[in-house]
Amino acid sequence: MNDLNITLNDLKQLTKWVKESNDIRELSLSYNGLELFISRNENTHRPAVSETPVALPAAAPKTNTSKKVEVKEAVSVVPTETKASSEKDISVGENEHLITAPMVGTFYKSPKPGAPAFVEVGQEVTSKTIVCIIEVMKLMNNLEAKVNGRVKEIYVEDQQPVEFGQPIMLIEKE
Amino acid sequence: MKNEIHKSIASIFGEGGRPKNSQREIKIIDTTFRDAHQSLWATRMRTEHMLGIAETMNSIGFHHIDMMAPIQFDVSVRYLKEDPWERVRELHKAAPETNFRALIRSKNIAAFDFLPDDVIDGWVDQLYDNGFRVIGAFDGLNDVSNIVRCLKRAKKLGAYTFGALSFCESPVHTDELFVKTAIELIDKANVDAIMLKDAGGLLTPERIRTLVPAIKEVIGDRPLELHSHCLTSLCPLVYLEAVELGCDILHTSIAPLANGAAQPATQTIVKSLRELGYVVKVDDKKIDEVSEYFKNICEIEGKPEGKPAEYNPLHYKHQLPGGMLSNFHAQLETAGLGDRYEELLEEIATVRKELAWPIMITPFAQFVGTQAVMNVISGERYGTVPNEIKKYVLGYYGRLLGPVDSDVYKKIIENGSSEISEKPTSPKPMMKDLAAQYPNATKDELLLRAMFAGNQVDGMKEAIANGESGDDYNGELVSFIKGLAGGDEKQVSLSTGNFKVSISR
């Protein structure tokens, strides 16, 4: 264990791994003065091994800087079901048409970056009006309004990832 | 050759093989830098990996070394955050005696939609300017009219050109189709070689026995190259059979970057060829050096080695490469339909048939797969139709090999975007506008901008300027810690000397 080579990339990967593995509450690593501690627990204390803030020693390979990397509460508990809650809040009236995502993908409000949006709130649309693009695996799906009316609400931001069935836009029928 | 009774590979070996050097020479095209990592590492081989062994590769004796297809540009820009043109220049510098190869995909290169001629022309010019002297092209629909222009341009510049036959298994992919395509490639583009390109690893020993003689008969003294994949484990046998029937050049990669979804291992194929009496002029010791080099990278970075696949005929049903299958599975999972995976495989096969049997490679595999997932998820077949599917049936990507199912055709026209005109339009020139928009950009950069929408190219340039790598590779330590926490234990801790690690759930 004397010649263990810990790089910045290692730390980046570990942090990413913990962030993505929702079941890991805590990770602590210490070696040769290097200490990494990540916790999802709110009232936590660093384990006894680390009395100092997480820092990368100057001896760390590949970089010759003595840059300090502070990682405190790097990952906090964030509810992941934002989609479900937003769905509950939306009520679709009889005179309204809800456009939802046909698949997991990315929402685009305009035909290309910087171009004007297909539609804005308040705009009149016909059933053939393209209201947005949902990109699914690099395939472009032009979503059309399907009804004549007016855009009442847009629930997603440009380039936002969307889930299957996620509400995109509400159209008030004519 | 023709007068000999065709003996199986097993019989020849069973009788003790043939005397050394009793047969003609077979050449090897190496795919380690191109298709091997595309198939095994999700195209994540970095330029530094290649440069580290380029000098050795340079003197092995390969006929060509394959380097760039569209996806290598794509992944370099979008994920690895390194300049793909820089890779082209650096490798040519590091291995000056090597004939590196570049492959052009139809008229879309790395994009899905067709690009205008000024982009394609510029692309060919920059491939040549940056060093390539071997340039080839393929069209997934075997519509030669899509690639004649780029092949002719490459040839005019002075490159050796190859035209590919996109092999696929279906009722419309007959030997006659490939013979016809080969003739067209020679008549219209005067290519120097014909490459039988089996991206889906679908060739069988039975099929190769009819296909190779049929193609050889019409291509004169131009060499025939074979390129396939080990997805069903039959590939090494297909290769040897092909050579027995007159195939001149084989595409292989160096294990551990071989087998599985990749090409057969150079080491094994070369040995078998020599046992069969063929002359193969490659340096085995240097190949072993390359092998050791990549074994080490696999270990340090936690990248997978290629493992021989199991034979599973289900592969012929969906014909999808593994990566795409797992992506579609994930799509179903997120829609809460993970249990309908079998149904999805059926739907993929049905959609493919309805759409006149497109080959299951980019972009057609995405077309078929995405439509199939949407059909399963929404419960309404062709209720939502991606723009590209409508364009495909209307002939925007070339002529189809058969008729689209008439009911399906109607639904696609009706439910697809009304903005898409029924008569295919050719894309407008792009280079002039791009040059005006980015007055300081080189031609290389402008071409990348033509290919990648949004801020992908800016992202790449920024990462390069900051000295960052986009490759999320795991070092030894990370692989070790992940392995340590691989189970579902609540608490794992390890301490030795001054090394301590603990993980809790």
Provide an overview of this structure.
Chain A is built from two helices and ten strands. By secondary structure, chain A is of the alpha+beta class. Chain A has two domains: 78 residues, no CATH class; 92 residues, RNA polymerase II/Efflux pump adaptor protein, barrel-sandwich hybrid domain (OB fold (Dihydrolipoamide Acetyltransferase, E2P)), CATH 2.40.50.100. About 23% of the residues of chain A have low confidence. By secondary structure, chain B is an alpha/beta fold. In chain B, the strands form two sheets. Chain B has an eight-stranded parallel barrel, surrounded by seven helices. In chain B, strands 9-10 form a two-stranded antiparallel sheet. Chains A and B meet through α1, β1 and β7 of A and α15, α17, α18, α23 and β10 of B.
Percent of residues in helices of chain A comes to 10-25%
Task: Calculate the mean pLDDT score of chain B and round it.
Answer: 93
For the biggest sheet of chain A, the summary is: 4 strands, antiparallel
CATH topology of the largest domain in chain A: OB fold (Dihydrolipoamide Acetyltransferase, E2P)
Question: What average pLDDT do the residues of chain A reach?
Answer: 75
* Secondary structure category of chain B: alpha/beta
Summary keywords:
heterodimer; A: 174 residues; OB fold (Dihydrolipoamide Acetyltransferase, E2P); 2 domains; 4-stranded antiparallel β-sheet; 2 helices; elongated; B: 505 residues; alpha/beta; TIM Barrel; Cyclin A, domain 1; 3 domains; 8-stranded parallel barrel; two-stranded antiparallel ribbon; 23 helices
